Amino acid sequence: MEKEEFDKYVKAGKIAQEIKKFALEIVKPEMKLINIAEAIDAKIFELGGKPAFPLNLSLNECAAHFTPARGDEIIATGILKIDIGVAVDGFIADTALSIDLTEDKRFSEMMELNEQILADVTKVVKHGMEVKDVGNAAAISFEQWNKTHDSNFSIIKGLCGHSLAEYNIHAGLTISNYENGNTKKLDEMAFAIEPFVTTGDGDIYEGQPGGIYVLQNEGNVRDRDARKILEYIKETYSTLPFCSRWLDKEGFKKIRFSLSMMEKAGIIYQYPMLMEKSRAPVSQFENTFVIFDGKVANTTKVE
Ligand code: CO
């Protein structure tokens, strides 16, 4: 990795830190998710970054992959996971936090455990370590908590951390949050670690589409408006995911129609929401790490 690339990862991380602080300031119970998303989108640009993917605003048993569209009436209640992606010239910071919106703060223990797991894993991350040791550290941290607190939380095994690369959110390496046998090494690279905790069984299924799209296949559309949108998507987002509210901001016409046509034609893919099977609430905390010059930088940890 060049020093210049590392500096861009660090810059993206700094912006992501600011965004987390901003989110904690602005998010209030019963606020519309679309208003949260538009405020954060604008703040990322204001700070000199670009969204690396649409802001995930996932509520309660939805663990990930929901982003609001203009006109959505959904409001923030229960537990909200905010998963933020910031890119600086394609170099990505990927970070997430959870906010307990209940009056009696009933998710505080789950969130505390979740932060503890991430903190314990952070302590062991170092250059050259085997990927399995991240999962082992997470498992020890989590089992210890359940034992000492006589609690019954589950870690979600179906959701994992991942390597990052230029304009690439999942660069091939999977970093599990449970005991595993992955002997691949964490070399000079960028990656995200993201444990998810739940009071349920911890199994995940794919639910309804969640408003996050990505270009999937070559293809053309006949409709004039749809063609303009497709060209814009190719030029602007390329391999990175996008969402309809960003197209709204550009003033395109017939966005819903065009996206659904392109989706049916297999040109774009819409990610399903990832749901906890027993419909139990889920929390998430995530940070991005960059190994450079033998040292580990936790780029998104709020200083
Ligand atoms: Co991630």
Can you characterise this structure?
The chain is an alpha+beta fold and 303 residues long. The chain has two domains: 3-207 and 274-298, Creatine Amidinohydrolase (Alpha-Beta Complex); 210-272, Winged helix-like DNA-binding domain superfamily/Winged helix DNA-binding domain (Arc Repressor Mutant, subunit A). It contains seven helices and 15 strands. It has helices at 3-26, 33-46, 108-124, 132-149, 224-236, 244-249, 255-264; strands at 50-51, 56-59, 62-64, 79-88, 91-100, 154-155, 161-164, 174-175, 190-193, 196-198, 204-215, 268-276, 282-284, 287-292, 295-298. The chain has a five-stranded antiparallel beta sheet. Strands 1, 2, 4 and 5 form a four-stranded antiparallel beta sheet that branches. It is globular, with a radius of gyration of 19 Å. The mean pLDDT is 97. Cobalt (II) ion (CO) is lined by residues 94, 162, 192, 194, 286.
Task: State the main characteristics.
alpha+beta; 303 residues; 5-stranded antiparallel beta sheet; 7 helices; Creatine Amidinohydrolase; 4-stranded antiparallel beta sheet; 34% helix; single chain; Arc Repressor Mutant, subunit A; 26% strand
